[in-house]
């Protein structure tokens, strides 16, 4: 599902290295109560964003099976790429 959300309320990692972004987001998930959260990765390229969303959404699901992550993305291609993974805790926002 695509939605519009103000970017100001989202976690925005300050690096474009996908491994570092995953580490930042996963650390946030471990340290804070974030059953529902928003993450802005709109600055990342499509492949890196697909990698980050699938890895971090899995980590988030393990801790919060009923939770959701709103991923702020730059391209609908990211949503299309990850649709078949059936990660039920994801919302994509352009």
Write the layout of secondary structure elements.
Elements: E1 2-3, H1 18-31, E2 36-40, H2 46-63, E3 68-72, H3 76-82, E4 90-93
Parallel strand pairs: 1-4, 2-3, 3-4
Walkthrough of the structure:
- By secondary structure, the chain is α/β, with parallel strands linked by helices.
- It is 41% helix and 17% strand.
- The chain has three helices and four strands.
- It has helices spanning 18-31, 46-63, 76-82; strands at 2-3, 36-40, 68-72, 90-93.
- A four-stranded parallel sheet has the order 1-4-3-2, covered by helices on one side.
- The model is unreliable at 1-7 (pLDDT under 50).
Helical segment count:
3
Q: Estimate the helix proportion, in percent.
A: 40-55%
Q: Structural class of the helices, strands and pairings?
A: alpha/beta
Strand content: 15-25%
The count of DSSP E runs of length 2 or more, i.e. the number of strands, is: 4
Overall mean pLDDT: 91
Terminus-to-terminus distance? 10 Å
Radius of gyration equals 12 Å
Categorize the overall geometry.
Answer: globular
Poorly predicted tracts of residues: 1-7
- The neighbouring-strand order within the major sheet is 1-4-3-2
Let me know the largest β-sheet: 4 strands, parallel
Order of helices and strands: EHEHEHE
